[in-house]
Design brief:
The protein is α/β, with parallel strands linked by helices. It has a single domain, classed as TIM Barrel. Helix content is 44%, strand content 16%. The protein is built from 13 helices and ten strands. The chain has helices at 4-13, 19-23, 29-32, 51-60, 78-88, 110-113, 119-139, 158-176, 190-200, 213-216, 222-229, 263-272, 288-304, and strands at residues 39-45, 65-70, 91-96, 143-147, 180-184, 205-210, 233-238, 240-241, 253-254, 279-281. α4 links the parallel β1 and β2 (65-70). The model is unreliable at 5-10 and 12-34 (pLDDT under 50).
Length: 308
């Protein structure tokens, strides 16, 4: 089997050339063909950036699926997005929305700025998520995706109860339009996320499991998270990361094979769960290194998925 040690050795030596496949050839095709879901990428479109060019870029990377989001969301993106997805035959698996307002990704400002937990931005973010649901419906995108925020561990906390009410409002709106609502993992423990989903009580409120976020936030690891969240998982963000070493700052995203995510073990567990959803590469870096790392990650994942 393509175990973690073999994976790290292969990932560490890989570069964006034909040698990628040679470096990963140790994996048996019979054992690596684990998942039937689409392989894609997380795409964020900045204000003023061409939607057409962004979707064309997905195909240029040899991919046919993406999770899409806009830094500044307006309803005017609907028609250009719908047209671009059709033109390039790219499947958008979820529409991601987190605004408006500032978000600070650390342990001190994060609880006050991320998701629907903070009171100051909650109503505006509910409105934007409803807008995202409308756009997703128009574009044929099956799900809306967001970070819920630092959901309190204590279910008796007033902010927990308020978060459940807010999530029910958004999930109900999505359900009326035939959309799923995906909660990104990270800021809360898996059991807290599952508790909130159960307390909301709607079957379209589900999970996008980011393989690195639980580690980066020090909230657990994806293998144990799958034991808790199991059949609720409908999307996967494929990235690697390391634990935080500061009480103020999150851990860091790192290249595949350099962090704490045991990709072969995760995929084997997903196979046992009969997971059929998307696997989406996410790299929160910019510049030429981003393309290089995406191609490297794509080659590794294709091998693990039996599609090399």
């Amino acid at each position: 089997m393509f175990d973690r040690r073999t994976f790290i050795c292969a990932a560490g030596g890989v570069c964006v050339t034909a040698g990628i496949r040679e470096a990963l050839a140790q994996s048996s095709p019979a054992n690596s063909k684990l998942l039937p879901g689409p392989l894609g990428i997380v795409v964020w479109i900045a204000e003023g950036e061409s939607i057409d060019a962004a979707i064309a870029g997905v195909r240029a990377l040899g991919l046919r699926a993406c999770q899409i989001g806009f830094v500044q969301l307006t309803r005017e993106v609907t028609v250009p997005l719908k047209n671009a997805l059709a033109r390039y035959e790219v499947e958008a698996t979820a529409f991601s929305e987190h605004g408006p307002g500032v978000r600070v990704f650390d342990f001190y400002e994060g609880p006050r700025t991320i998701g629907i937990v903070p009171e100051d931005t909650r109503e505006a973010r509910i409105r934007n998520l409803k807008m995202a649901a409308d756009i997703a419906t128009e574009c044929g995108i099956p799900a809306v995706h967001t970070h819920c925020g630092f959901i309190p561990e204590d279910p008796n906390d007033r902010r927990y109860e308020e978060s459940v009410v807010a999530m029910k409002q958004i999930a109900s709106y999505c359900k009326e339009r035939g959309r799923s609502f995906l909660c990104e993992t990270g800021e809360e423990t898996p059991i807290t996320l599952r508790r909130m989903i159960e307390d909301v009580g709607l079957d379209n409120l589900l999970v996008n499991l980011d393989l690195a976020n639980l580690i980066i936030y020090g909230k657990g690891n994806p293998i144990e998270a799958l034991e808790v969240l199991g059949q609720l998982v409908r999307g996967i963000h494929a990235k690697d990361g390391v634990l935080p070493t500061s009480t103020r700052k999150l851990g860091k995203e790192v290249a595949f094979g350099e962090g704490r995510v045991d990709f072969p073990a995760v995929f084997e567990q997903l196979r046992r769960l009969n997971y059929k959803g998307p696997i989406l590469i996410e790299h929160e870096i910019s510049g030429p290194e981003r393309t290089k790392e995406i191609l490297r990650s794509k080659a590794i994942l294709e091998n693990l998925l039996g599609k090399a």
